[in-house]
Amino acid sequence: MKLNDFQLFHVVLFLINRVLYFCDGSVLCQEPSPVPNAYREWSGIGMTAEVNYTCYTHYVLMSGDLVRTCVNGVYTGDEPVCKLDCGVPRNLEGATVSYPSTTSDLTSVSKAKYDCLPGLKVKGNSKNTENIAEGCKAFLADGSNVDHVVDGDTTCKPLTDTSIDIHLNDTYKIMKIFIVHNLASINKISVSAIQNSTGLEKTCVEMDYGDGTVGITKTLYSSKFYASAKCYGDIVRIVLTLSTTLSICDIMIYGNLFIGDCGQPAVKFGQTVEYTNTTEGSTALLSCVPPFYPENNHGVITCQGTAWTSSKLICTDRHDNIADEIPNNLYDMVLDNNYTTCVNIGSSNGIPSEWSIDLGQDYEVNSLSVTFGDMDLSQPVKAVIVHSSGKATTCQYERPKGAGVVVAFVCSYARVTRNIKLTGGDELNLCDVKIKGRYYDEPLECYNSFKGIDYKGTQNVTSNGRVCLPWVSIPEYSSTIENFPDVSYDETGNHCRNPSKDGRGSPWCFISPIEWHYCSVPKCGKYIVFASYHEYG
Questions:
Q1: Secretion signal: which residues (predicted)?
Q2: Is 92:259 a contact under the CB 8 Å cutoff?
Q3: Is 177 in contact with 251 (CB distance < 8 Å)?
Q4: Domain end marker among 208, 223, 257
Q5: Per-residue pLDDT for 149 more than 90?
Q6: Which pLDDT tens digit goes with each residue over 426-476?
Q7: DSSP, residue by residue, 264-280
Q8: Which residues form the domain of 285?
Q9: How much is the pTM?
């Protein structure tokens, strides 16, 4: 049969591109290539195949298309380009900021430049001013003018009152205060800052010197030793308790212009935040994102000066005891959280004693805590994770000694299971079993364990954008599935992993038979994303 030009064209195109054809000449699209910094979800081979991309968390689409459809063997649009978006740089006290862009990648890095406001200068890594009190107005409590204490002159004059208000030219965060005096014995000092517009007074420091100290120059306040964020205002009030008459020569105040903006609150693993303002006194509410739940109720933070108060909210996806989710009547006294009620299980027909549990659904199991009663523990006791494939993994443990001992079994890789077995010798005397883990319906796109050996996600592109090779194609890793968190190489695929005993610091993959590179897989303590049945990359 002789082919016409049209048919011959499609035969050649098929051989070059290895796409699939129907007899009528319709062309099917194969799997699209992964792109850096994006998840992808592919509908599979077909004439109307579709691929959907989603940029990684904190990345934004710069060009290309997030949805591409197969038309006669070719996907419409262009591959998406996702870049890291760092957001708007936060304000710094006493400085202005300029920046060309908030996005960045390996080839184009965006930098923010800060410049000090007029009257401020940079010294080392901190911003310092000259003496901001010099030339300002100073008054005693009775209203008497005592400008001589802020004139920069060391001429000393006795004071009838030891409460002094120094009116600054702007609102400042107070860093240090020095007083030059003429051999006065100071028993106690109090320094506070007042916001003239609101009358709000904040105590910077109160200090008791006991019997009094005598000196020429005294440091009344230094933010190095105190929470300086709270000490700001446009009036500084100094109150001294003396044993003798005070002659003040000069008062020097050093500080920075106060901006009063805390910027965007930071969130951690499994958290979200709600807030309306970032100015002094504003509050923000941190909460956990389902399926994560709070371990405590410390979710409210407050903007104080230029920084948010620290949050102690902890969000977790791990149940302290998965067994609490299982009806106790199925396993009687073993799951009743009562250490005094125990169950004795003996061996039968030469088969070692065994206790098993069906968790009812899939969990990533991290560890077991088992309380044993009065039994012979000279023979090893094992905790075994049974996978859906039937393959079993033994959790590590330390041999218990004596009766009533609580033994922790650590299950490396947090492998997925719904069935757990405890096996012993002639008998098992079980008083309580607790199981720690998380409900599993999809892998996390981050890791919890040391160096990420538990990572089961689907990222398959390195941090420099190279596509990973299948692990089974690397000879030295093609028969060591027990060193992976997956049950089979079908699950491992070409996804980033950190097989045990390799010593690398985080998930990685091979990009050639002899080259490897780290992947950009975050630790779950930074933020959390789900695979959602997407292929990462």
A1: 1-25
A2: yes
A3: yes
A4: 257
A5: no
A6: 888 888 888 888 888 888 878 878 788 889 988 888 887 788 999 999 998
A7: SPP--TTEEEEES--BT
A8: 271-316
A9: 0.52
